[in-house]
Design brief:
elongated, 6 helices, alpha/beta, 3 strands, 139 residues, three-stranded parallel sheet
Length: 139
């Protein structure tokens, strides 16, 4: 019976929690906009404001992404990917704008043997041991 139980939602989220500090007047204005029904909550207001700014500066982001050779979006590195790089004698230079994930079954030794550098603008998901092993290679 337990064999047919399936997880409906992934345990990993597609968002990252951040904390910001706002002045009381700014916060009050956000709350007023929510109260007046323009936004469903504070988070909705803040996400909309951020998206509007990113859209406003989309050309700069696009140019910088190309200039810095960044992979845009979600980039996953599995144990198999890293083992293949090791067999080929390659060292990876990871440059991601978005989310970079190093699989949970990647050992710190395998990460150090195959990742020469890692730069992530956004979030890096990896085990604490792998993050520690790559600390001197993280920009």
């Amino acid at each position: 019976m337990a064999n047919n139980v399936r997880e409906l939602h992934s345990k990993t989220s597609d968002t990252e929690k951040i904390t910001i500090n706002l002045g009381y007047v700014d916060l009050g204005q956000v709350d007023l906009m929510v109260q007046e029904g323009f936004y469903s909550n504070r988070t909705d207001f803040i996400r909309t404001a951020i998206r509007n700014q990113l859209e406003r500066h989309a050309d700069v982001v696009k140019q910088s992404t190309a200039r810095k050779s960044l992979d845009l979006g979600l980039r996953n590195f599995s144990r198999e990917d890293l083992e293949e790089a090791r067999r080929a004698g390659e060292m990876l230079h990871i440059n991601v704008l978005g989310l970079a994930t190093i699989a949970h079954d990647v050992t710190p030794d395998l990460a150090r043997a195959t990742i020469a550098s890692i730069s992530v603008l956004g979030a890096l998901h990896a085990t604490p041991a792998v993050k520690a092993a790559l600390a001197d290679r993280t920009r």
